[in-house]
């Protein structure tokens, strides 16, 4: 017999807009928090113990919030909006004060990428005013690091991912572009290392596993494209995953490297084994397209959660494959 379809353990309502982005902070002491950014310009800080919004930050002058994250070392929230601003907020002692803002000039939907380089310093990558450009700055100083501009015509930058290698090289950045290309950049050398055409349509989302040097990307088509990096930092296309329905908003790999979640335009979240890409489950709850997925960073694996945010203005929380069933 097949297993019954899973159900969310609970849901969060009241965001007041489409849920474009989600971010957990559960690695420290209570309270465990989930941050959400909405299409109405508000950031909700949800207390996962009380299952209520602890605070609402009205950000970006009512423009859609496209990305949220936090600095691990301080009580600082980072948000990105369609008002072409990246904002840093002080949440210490219950505050929600604007500390700094960075003007990006970008009118697209490309989400920022954040990389911790030391306990007190970070790199922030974002799409720039010129649609094919990516700018990288240091935080909290806001000092510019570099601008990455492809020589070939690949169109608008759609999605980016900063990561650090174990080989001693400086930070690298993966980027997906409008023409379906993936480019790998060396941030220190400001140089393109490799390029492939992974999709016939724009790359809508990508995620990467630095431990396995393996990534996966999605677009508006009925396919996920997986790929690896070889010893020369060349992107090598691997297996494709055929989907039932077209369109993927976001992809997320759980920290233990066992399962992959996809946010579908067909209102569903799909779970795959990250090792084999075998389909494991279809999560059906939402009544409109799923825009965001995120795994929690609980230190206890048994507490790990998956959150999904939808255009239907609801967040669903799921506890799945926490007993090793997703080793795949």
TrEMBL record:
The answer to whether the entry has keyword Repeat is yes
**Pfam hit, one:** WD40
SUPFAM superfamilies hit by this protein: WD40 repeat-like
Matching entries from InterPro entries are given as: WD40/YVTN_repeat-like_dom_sf, WD40_repeat_dom_sf, WD40_rpt
Keywords from the UniProt entry:
Repeat, WD repeat
WD repeats by residue range: 196-237, 283-320
Biological source species: Nothobranchius furzeri
| Name of this chain's protein | G protein subunit beta 1 like
């Amino acid at each position: 017999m097949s297993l019954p379809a899973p159900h969310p353990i609970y849901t969060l309502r009241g965001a007041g807009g489409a849920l474009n982005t989600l971010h957990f902070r559960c690695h420290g002491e209570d309270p465990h928090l989930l941050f959400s950014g909405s299409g109405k310009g508000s950031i909700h800080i949800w207390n996962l113990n009380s299952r209520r919004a602890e605070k609402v930050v009205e950000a970006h002058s009512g423009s859609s919030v496209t990305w949220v994250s936090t600095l691990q070392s301080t009580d600082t929230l980072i948000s990105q909006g369609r008002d072409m601003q990246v904002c840093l907020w002080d949440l210490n002692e219950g505050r929600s004060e604007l500390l700094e803002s960075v003007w990006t000039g970008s009118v697209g939907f490309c989400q920022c990428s954040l990389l911790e380089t030391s306990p007190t310093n970070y790199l922030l990558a974002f799409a720039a005013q010129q649609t094919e450009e990516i700018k990288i700055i240091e935080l909290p100083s806001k000092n510019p690091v570099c601008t990455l501009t492809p020589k070939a015509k690949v169109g608008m930058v759609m999605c980016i991912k900063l990561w650090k290698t174990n080989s001693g090289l400086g930070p690298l950045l993966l980027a997906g572009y409008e023409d379906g290309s993936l480019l790998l950049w060396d941030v220190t050398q400001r140089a393109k290392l490799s390029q492939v055409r992974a999709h016939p349509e724009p790359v809508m989302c990508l995620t990467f596993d630095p431990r396995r040097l393996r990534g996966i990307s999605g677009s508006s088509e009925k396919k996920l494209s997986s790929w690896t990096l070889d010893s020369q930092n060349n992107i090598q296309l691997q297996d494709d995953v055929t989907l039932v329905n077209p369109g993927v908003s976001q992809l997320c790999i759980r920290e233990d490297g066992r399962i992959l979640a996809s946010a579908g335009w067909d209102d569903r979240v799909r779970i795959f084994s990250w090792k084999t890409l075998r389909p494991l489950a279809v999560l059906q709850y939402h009544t409109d397209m799923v825009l965001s997925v995120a795994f929690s960073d609980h230190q206890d694996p048994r507490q790990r959660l998956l959150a999904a945010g939808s255009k239907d203005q609801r967040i669903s929380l799921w506890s799945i494959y926490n007993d090793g069933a997703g080793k795949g």
